[in-house]
Write a structure and sequence with these properties.
Blueprint (H helix, E strand, L loop, with lengths): L9 E4 L16 E5 L8 E3 L3 E3 L2 E4 L4 E2 L3 H5 L2 E2 L4 E5 L3 E3 L2 E3 L4 E6 L5 E7 L10 E2 L4 E2 L8 E3 L15 E2 L1
Parallel strand pairs: 5-16
Antiparallel strand pairs: 1-2, 1-7, 2-3, 3-6, 4-5, 8-11, 8-15, 9-10, 11-12, 12-13, 12-14
């Protein structure tokens, strides 16, 4: 299977169950897709745990051969920090244009926004993002504009986000 015929590596939502692994990777699941592996086959990895509203994907993944299944994957907007290009209305409230938000997902690849806040009792000059967010539709993600937020380099041996 040619790597060039496959989608790029990244986070996706499954639209069909993975053949022969329907229980582990059903339709409507958040996965990390690698178009390569040590075996030469593409693999998918299901999320293991979530830290600071970001999923961590561990392990070698589940290899597969079906190009048609890989074509059924829906790319999701990367987890991270965004600004609202227009106000956002949701059940129970609204956030104005220009609000700093963090985008995350649940295991079903449904988007969740977390609002950036400065805490009332500041010990450091930090922006805080709760672990409780607001579920939004995929259509509402069109109002997001990526922003760059620089991160400290984690100490050696610290747990980081992404795939391991």
């Amino acid at each position: 299977m040619s790597k060039s015929m496959l989608p790029p590596c990244g986070m996706y939502r499954t639209t069909k169950p993975l053949p022969e692994h329907e229980t582990d990777v059903p339709a409507g699941t958040l996965v990390y897709f690698h178009n390569h592996s040590d075996s030469g086959l593409p693999v998918v990895i299901v999320p293991e745990h979530n830290v600071m509203n970001r999923w961590h994907f561990h392990g070698a993944g589940i290899p597969f051969r079906g190009l048609t299944w890989a074509d059924s994957l829906q790319k999701v907007l990367p987890e991270g920090f965004y600004m609202l290009r227009k106000g956002l209305e949701f059940e129970g409230g609204s956030w104005p244009k220009g609000t700093l938000v963090q985008l995350g997902y649940n295991r079903e690849a449904e988007p969740i926004l977390f609002i950036g806040q400065v805490r009332a009792t500041m010990e450091e000059n930090d922006v805080f993002f709760s672990d409780r967010g607001v579920g939004v539709s995929r259509d509402q993600l069109a109002s997001l504009e990526a922003v760059v937020v620089h991160q400290e380099t984690p100490p050696e041996g610290a747990h980081t986000t992404g795939t391991h």
